[in-house]
Amino acid sequence: MIKLAPSILSADFARLGEQVQEAVAAGADRIHIDVMDGHFVPNITIGPLVVTAVRKVTKIMLETHLMIIPPETYIDAFADAGSDLIIIHEESTPHLHRAIQMVKNKGKLAGVTINPATPLNRLEEILEYVDLVLLMTVNPGFGNQEFIPTMIKKIQHLAEIKKKNRLNFEIEVDGGVNEKTIQSIIKAGAEVLVAGAAVFSAPEGIQAAMNKLSRLAYETTLKSV
Ligand code: DX5
Ligand code: ZN
């Protein structure tokens, strides 16, 4: 089953609790939280306090996508705030293995991610240590950007590597997931899909948007069996 992770980057922050609960009621598998520092990416968003606040309104998995340098400084704070899974950018630290171990030492799931222009082989030595690999399919920093079409091949390639080496990490995709792109992303091998604008900015509302994405995901997996 494909998992959906609505990203609160596109939520109404004045009604964040309500919006998260609506996404959970609509079938979200986890909530994706984008942390940006104005250095690693040209935008500033969320700190540990917001994770603490979101943690109070739902029991489902919270995944925290750290777009900050250096990530090590804040791993403990985001873990203590209630993140279940912490995702580190390969480009954000020269000591990726240590950063991943820091997440695990806090008893949390550890994920790694790369920007669109970073080749997959940069992850070769870390794949067996992570619970999830997130492929960025837009340049990180903002919601509601267009999916970069050449990323389909990258997803396929990661799925092949996973199969060939019998690895256990989940394959997640972040950026430009919507009703137009979702089918090719799933066919390429993605297992967890982040969706910000397609859920929280949908004119039809969160529930209807989630229903539509879940239905498309379900139909695509049926067809590919
Ligand atoms: C971008 C973030 C994404 C963002 C995705 O830097 O990492 O999680 O919320 O937004 P959409 O789904 O609108 O492309
Ligand atoms: Zn993200």
Question: How would you briefly describe this protein structure?
Answer:
The protein contains 8 helices and 8 strands.
| Helix/strand order, N-terminal first | EHEHEHEHEEHEHEHH
How many domains make up the coordinates?
1
β-strand number: 8
Low-pLDDT parts are none
Mean pLDDT: 98
Q: Structural class of the helix and strand makeup?
A: alpha/beta
Distance between the termini: 12 Å
> What's the CATH class, please?
Alpha Beta
Shape: globular
CATH superfamily: Aldolase class I
Side by side, the strands of the main sheet go: 1-8-7-6-5-4-3-2
The fold-level CATH name is TIM Barrel
Helical region count?
8
**% residues in beta strands:** 15-25%
Sketch the major β-sheet: 8 strands, parallel
Please bin the fraction of helical residues: 25-40%
Which second-level CATH architecture applies? Alpha-Beta Barrel
Which kinds of small molecule does this entry bind, naming each only once?
D-xylitol-5-phosphate, zinc ion
Taking Cα atoms only, what radius of gyration do you get, to the nearest Å? 16 Å
Question: Can you characterise this structure?
Answer:
It is a single chain. The protein is α/β, with parallel strands linked by helices. It has a single domain, classed as Aldolase class I (TIM Barrel, Alpha-Beta Barrel). It is built from eight helices and eight strands; from the N terminus they run βαβαβαβαββαβαβαα. It has helices at about 15-25, 50-55, 70-80, 95-105, 150-165, 180-190, 195-200, 205-225, and strands at about 5, 30-35, 60-65, 85-90, 110-115, 130-135, 170-175, 190-195. Strands 1-8-7-6-5-4-3-2 form an eight-stranded parallel β-sheet. It is globular and about 45 Å long. Bound molecules: D-xylitol-5-phosphate (DX5) and zinc ion. Zinc ion binds near residues 7, 32 and 34.
